[in-house]
Amino acid sequence: ATPTAVMVGTGIGASQGVLIKGGHALESTHKVNCILFDKTGTLTMGKPVVVSTKLLKNMALPIFYELVAAVEVNSSHPLAKAIVEHTKKFKEDNQIGIDEGKDFVSITGGGVKATVRDKEIMVGSKSLMLDSDISISTEVDELLREAEGLAQTTVLVSIDGEVIGIITISDPLKPEARDVISILRSMKVKSIMVTGDNWGTAKAIGKQVGIDNDDIIAEAKPDQKADHVKNLQMSGLTVAMVGDGINDSPALVAADVGMAIGAGTDIAIEAADIVLMRSNLEDVITAIDLSRKTFSRIR
Ligand code: ADP
Ligand code: MG
Description:
By secondary structure, the protein is an alpha/beta fold. The chain contains 13 helices and 13 strands. The chain has a 7-stranded mixed β-sheet with strand order 1-13-12-11-2-9-10, sandwiched between helices. The protein has a 6-stranded antiparallel β-sheet with strand order 3-8-7-6-5-4.
């Protein structure tokens, strides 16, 4: 392609909300034959809402949420926002206040903890609980499996090392996600899902979006996401990563083409080669089409 063609291609992209950071990014995109999609905020809307709560101890729901929110107010994670939003309903009814816990700690890809009224409150995934030597009863395991089968994300809450409740959170698929995966398949581009969320939820979302279990990687920490990109590259594939979070940025950098969701975090947008300003997954196809048109000889 001539420099003019590249300029035209980049310009067309920009006019459609596909920001391509330079000619190299546009060129690499036409070779992409494998795309890793992050789940939360990329395949899903990224606007999670609390759908149910299961308490295992005799405790009033508003008091439970008061404790949980005291920890989550310090977190910018979408799940934390969903929980704080949910807690506000009790606050508006003047049932509780939301204060902030002390000694807040955030464990990336796991959850959060803090001391609230002299109790240690931990909020996060089952693996975070297990890593902290907190035991999970068969009853809790059963409840987790049930919610995960419905494609819901589960968050466990413990007080002083004992699980006291499960919060179930739903984050619906983006309406275009399934079609985009199917069109990519017809374009000979393989789609893989990579997520920090648990296997059960990941597989249920995979089923909704049309990604096979074999092409799902769950419970992946940020550097593991990047390692998966590198492994695929070593197997000879040209890999794009599509993501929105801080936890996606190592993978966005490692990929041949990193694509950030426009509504995502600044860190992801900076790490990416292409920014999808509309946050619509159809623009993954727009980018590939544009690059193929600019760089393929047969036209
Ligand atoms: P993803 O890759 O899907 O964007 P993350 O790596 O950010 O997910 O998080 C993985 C898991 O860690 C979540 O599904 C949740 O169980 C837990 N988690 C992370 N941060 C929090 C938080 N602030 N509150 C509760 N749970 C959290
Ligand atoms: Mg995400």
